[in-house]
Amino acid sequence: MKLTGxxxxxxxxxxxxQSSEPVRRMTPPQKLYRAGKNMPIVVSRVRAxxxxxxxxxxxxxxxxxxxxxxPQAQAHPLASDEIRLPVIPSDLSAxxxxxxDSSPTVLxxxxxxQTRLHLAQTxxxxxxxxxxxxxxxxxxxxxxxxxxxxxxxxxxxxxxCVGHGTFIAGVIAAHDQEGTPVVGVAPxxxxxxxxxxxxxxxxxxxxxxxxxxxxxxxxxxxIDVSAALPSANTALRSALVFAxxxxxxxxxxxxxxxxxxxxxxxxxxxxxxxxxxxxLSVVDTDIDGNLxxxxxxxxxxxxxxxxxxxxxxxxxxxxxxxxxxxxxxTAFVAGAAALVRSYHPELSxxxxxxxxxxxxxxxxxxxxxxxGALTRVTSSTVDxxxxxxxxxxxxxxxxxxxxQRTAILTAVCAVLxxxxxxxxxxxxxVRSRSEI
Length: 436
Description:
Layout: E1 2-5, E2 12-15, H1 29-35, H2 39-69, H3 112-116, H4 119-122, E3 132-137, E4 151-153, H5 164-173, E5 190-195, H6 205-217, E6 222-225, H7 234-245, E7 249-253, E8 279-285, E9 303-306, E10 310-313, E11 320-323, H8 326-343, H9 349-358, H10 370-375, H11 395-435
């Protein structure tokens, strides 16, 4: 017997599986009992009817009990092997004389990373308003539609030939666009573009140091640095101290992207600026939550976040690209830090970093949990009575939907239990009459 049906309808539909044998209509036991003849045969048929009904109803009872207690399933996120988008480069190949072109594809599905991080829910709590995030990378194109009107910086830094800096800025702060669900972590945050590379996308300690100082001077409260350098010079170390002194949180990858060439490939190598004590270091995970394997294994990392086959914006046009690596994961953490600094403006940079790490999901490297970071109660948490009433966690709506779903499933299971009980009772009554 094949069972088909839908929980969205008031009942279930049961159909017999296709086979070479004809489907026979089973005579109800009441009619057999009223016949009053051949009682042993009647009892046998009733027992057969009972067994057939139980063989159908028992699995349904188990299913309903499990479904009623299980959490509501989310829509399946867009898997990496289902995406067909061009890859955003980290730098330009030697001798390449043209900039990254626009992508011809506008993504219509929700990227898996947005679903994994529950961005739709977290953005009902905070969208990063009032916070500027510095992006020290290849630059950020200020004409990118999803960032229009929210990018400022040095003129040279707002011309992104490579496209990687614009992609990272989009992961952090892209606003929603008509026709696509792709959105950044903090879509109301502002972006300060600071160049930390040359025109081809190759970073140096001195360029990164200058970019950090520029972003701090421009009022950034969070700085995303994409560089993973094999060493730090005096200028970079001094810039990191400068950021700490001005209560600015710096976030950086704990390992370089695979496509980026560095002068070191030894295991457990430290990279800068992530190696600094005051910098929040990040590694990337794939759609299954597994840490990615890179040629340069990080000596330490504070957090992990989605970073493989992540969809985002490009430097030109409305089309989307795919980005992968620790630099992408770093952007998610930087965006999360912007949300926390917006929702809890009283927290220091050190407090924000501690909050992000302590609220993360446990693991070899703690996994970013933005909702936990925003809503975790601490002694310094702002009194909710004084917070913006339009930015409350959406618990009421979800609770009501869960209760309605549980009530429907409970009612269906109750009906099935009554049917089984009636079948068993009928068999017992027939058996009693046969023994008289």
